Amino acid sequence: MFYRCRCPAHSQMACSNIRYGAGVTKEIGMDLQNMGARNVCLMTDRTLSQLPPVGVVLDSLTKHGVEYKIYEDVRVEPTDKSFKAAIDFAKQGHFDVYVAVGGGSVIDTCKAANLYASHPEAEFLDFVNAPIGKGKPITASLKPLIAVPTTAGTGSETTGVAIFDFENLKAKTGIANRALKPTLGMVDPLHTLHMPSRVAANSGFDVLCHALESFTALPYNLRSPCPSNPINRPAYQGSNPISDVWARHALKIVAKYLKRAVRDAGDVEARSSMHLASVFAGIGFGNAGVHLCHGMSYPIAGNVKTHRARGYNVEHPIVPHGLSVVLTSPAVFAFTANMCPERHLEAAQILGTDVSNIKKDDAGRVLADTLRSILYDLEVEDGLFAIGYTKEDIPSLVKGTIPQERVTKLSPRAHTEEDLTALFAASMKLY
Amino acid sequence: MFYRCRCPAHSQMACSNIRYGAGVTKEIGMDLQNMGARNVCLMTDRTLSQLPPVGVVLDSLTKHGVEYKIYEDVRVEPTDKSFKAAIDFAKQGHFDVYVAVGGGSVIDTCKAANLYASHPEAEFLDFVNAPIGKGKPITASLKPLIAVPTTAGTGSETTGVAIFDFENLKAKTGIANRALKPTLGMVDPLHTLHMPSRVAANSGFDVLCHALESFTALPYNLRSPCPSNPINRPAYQGSNPISDVWARHALKIVAKYLKRAVRDAGDVEARSSMHLASVFAGIGFGNAGVHLCHGMSYPIAGNVKTHRARGYNVEHPIVPHGLSVVLTSPAVFAFTANMCPERHLEAAQILGTDVSNIKKDDAGRVLADTLRSILYDLEVEDGLFAIGYTKEDIPSLVKGTIPQERVTKLSPRAHTEEDLTALFAASMKLY
Ligand SMILES: NC(=O)c1ccc[n+]([C@@H]2O[C@H](COP(=O)([O-])OP(=O)(O)OC[C@H]3O[C@@H](n4cnc5c(N)ncnc54)[C@H](O)[C@@H]3O)[C@@H](O)[C@H]2O)c1
Ligand SMILES: NC(=O)c1ccc[n+]([C@@H]2O[C@H](COP(=O)([O-])OP(=O)(O)OC[C@H]3O[C@@H](n4cnc5c(N)ncnc54)[C@H](O)[C@@H]3O)[C@@H](O)[C@H]2O)c1
Ligand SMILES: [Fe+2]
Ligand SMILES: [Fe+2]
User: Fold this and answer.
1) How many domains does chain B have?
2) Cα–Cα distance, A67 to A97 (Å, whole number)
3) Boundaries of each Alcohol dehydrogenase iron-type/glycerol dehydrogenase GldA domain copy (chains A, B) (predicted)?
């Protein structure tokens, strides 16, 4: 049982600077000391600031005499407005190291705060992905950022991505640049034991979709146009032999542990395995990219009207990211399957379906059924309808998907607005 | 077929800064231009300097107007003396970027040249691993180094390790520090098509042993003593859930492609798959470590008397690294198996043996037999005896293994000098 580590000799992974192990965050004060940190910005949200993951970090900072300021106003599912508030805090603080303790909302907010504090002259839209923002290159060097993920979900500790809800547009977008990649991710499985069951479920769906989408993304050698200079390679480069290793491996863990992790917060083996799976899937999709489930999730999250996330300690209406992503997954994979049926079948098989007598033509249906049955077992809301959407909303959902081309162009199957309309329609009810 | 890339949109892997694809080195001139390189040191050896891998790089440098000087005196299986000659060249050249085109011998030499040119005041032993050297920390920042591996073997493009033969000691040792890790590895499978069959075999055995040893290394959470400060974590930290992914995956590719790659230089699929396997195994062992086969290989290589490597275009006696490693592998895994029989059985199974009715107690014998049969099929020399050693040499081989504790302590089974003696004795003849 690899999570029961009897000493602080945790595993520092060669990839993506991830250090893994139960209790690994206890030594963060020493790391900060080693880095010569004198003025640390600790970011978190108001739920976590009351819980052990933040407590452990604070104790370690105190023990090692590291000075810090806390920012606990991170918004769950951040917006441009909440990003800007965190950026202001960072600009005023003149910090030399950032520490983010939380889920994707906290880590992404901290990445943005670090970025704009290092570029004080920049306008907010300068670094936001085109076509919504200007997608300018990042020229200044950022301060070190240590990410301590507390959900088993986004993999944000491994990626150069920060996502926010652009409220005017009613769609999420983000900033994607390798410079945002955290200096170090401290993946301490003990932190996931506090996740409410629905947070475990939704962040687990995020892992599932990262793995499925990166595994089925357009292969890297079919991407076009070719960049004329290697510096113009996109961060998301399509599925490739490396990302496939991560995607398959993450999928296997999800198949084995997701349900257990959701159902029993005390199942340390399941929760810590899912925590590692989120890292693996993060490395995979951070490299290969995601496609339609994620592209379509951004308007699903951004157009939220009144939906309250079950089991979340949050006062505003939200569709949690993992939920917004997974609700379209049956429709999406039914749609993409004919482009690479073997991969869709393999995914269904890893997720527990016997595919030995299935024809290639049925790959999409079979993977979709597999996903629906997982969602049903985990008592997921019955489609977009159940979170407050009706047929009338489809045009705005489609409209909000169009600018997500950076992501959606990695879909293995080309698609029109009519296709997107059909995918949203097919996702209204699942069971 | 992922190697047949129709555009320069190759896969840049999130891990370890590896860019992979057929023809990917054609753009190296542009990368150097992007980096602002004005004075490049191109290192290679005298065989490769006549072959396409170097030709392609030179054409690209010329096309993009990048100034460079060539050093082609790298010794195959480098020594302290040959390292020093390369270091002198580097010191005199005041280079701003290094490019290494070759196998492990070239890449390791280039790492050392870059290191000591960046630390002009240092003595040679300062950075060499203790107890042979002083193992001092590296404080200066090194120049960027682009590694272009032409063997499917060492994985040196992914590691912070540089190995040389310390001639006075008659044993190999090295420098191990994350700072040595190449900035970018350009893994271009086309370059492996020129490898002579024996180079493909021996470098392939290196991949096999990297995977087997890192898979069976002492688990990271059983290592001791615990470092009191995270900065003192060793680079080699024992097997862990991440390195296991790489080791298993590399082993699967070796099982499928090694023999084909050795037997048919024109089998592009096999050769390019082995090239990727060397990267995977490199990331895995660079993180987890290797153990007895590698630890014992250093005196086997260092005590060479007259053995001429078959199929190598080299004038001095050598035992090629991969050969020196693999010859003890049957004995080593028979010895270590009782500590983690499941892993030894799993490895035998991946390598093609039916283990369904094998008892745990037989795991060592079964893996050893599996290895012997692969070696026999690939016409490998029949043990240490066949490369010039006799029983009389065993004491010096054991003596040369003792200072390799940095590596050998990762053996899952503790061992005495008697054990080492027995392992060398058992490796005298294989078939
Ligand atoms: N950067 C990326 O690569 C990336 C990838 C996917 C998603 N995202 C983004 O990440 C955000 C979602 O992040 P998330 O799914 O990790 O959830 P989250 O950060 O939004 O947290 C969800 C809720 O769970 C609580 N919580 C988190 N960890 C807890 C713990 N250990 N114990 C108790 N409560 C805990 C939080 O306080 C919050 O109320 C979205 O904005 C999404 O768009 C980013
Ligand atoms: N740094 C590390 O992590 C690491 C790991 C393992 C081994 N090593 C070291 O690497 C060295 C061995 O390197 P190697 O096994 O890659 O072989 P090598 O670099 O010694 O090359 C072996 C021979 O093959 C020739 N050659 C290489 N590529 C060729 C090609 N494409 N076409 C034709 N000829 C080619 C070379 O000219 C040489 O004659 C040893 O010194 C070993 O100790 C280092
Ligand atoms: Fe996501
Ligand atoms: Fe090796």
Assistant:
1) 2
2) 11
3) 17-189
- Assess whether A279 and A137 both reside in one domain: no
ipTM of the complex: 0.75
Q: How far is the CA of B232 from the centre of ligand 2 (A)?
A: 30
Alpha-carbon span A144 to A186, nearest angstrom: 13
Nearest to A229 among B30, B222, B283 (CB): B30
User: Do B184 and B211 share a domain, yes or no?
Assistant: no
Q: Check whether residue A185 and residue A234 sit in a common domain.
A: no
- pLDDT value, residue A87: 98
Q: What is the CA radius of gyration of chain A?
A: 20
Decide if B2 is inside a domain: no
B412, two tokens: 């899952």
Distance (Å, rounded) from C-alpha B64 to C-alpha B340? 53
Tokens at residue B396, please?
A: 């010096």
Nearest C-alpha of chain B: how many angstroms from A236? 10
Gap between the Cα atoms of B218 and B414, Å rounded: 10
Per-residue confidence band for B11, with pLDDT thresholds at 50, 70 and 90: very low
Cβ of B161 below 6 Å from ligand 2 = yes
Q: Tokens 């006799």 sit at which residue?
A: B390
Residue nearest to atom 34 of ligand 1 (CA): A195
Whole-prediction pTM = 0.86
Residues A257 and A115 in one domain: no
**Is the CB of residue B105 below 6 angstroms from any atom belonging to ligand 2?**
yes
Q: Are B57 and B114 in contact (CB under 8 A)?
A: no
The reply to whether B215 and B152 lie within a common domain is: no
Q: Report the residue count for chain B.
A: 431
What distance in angstroms lies between residue A190's CA and the mean position of ligand 3's atoms? 22
The shortest CB-CB distance from B7 to any of A27, A226, A276 is to A226
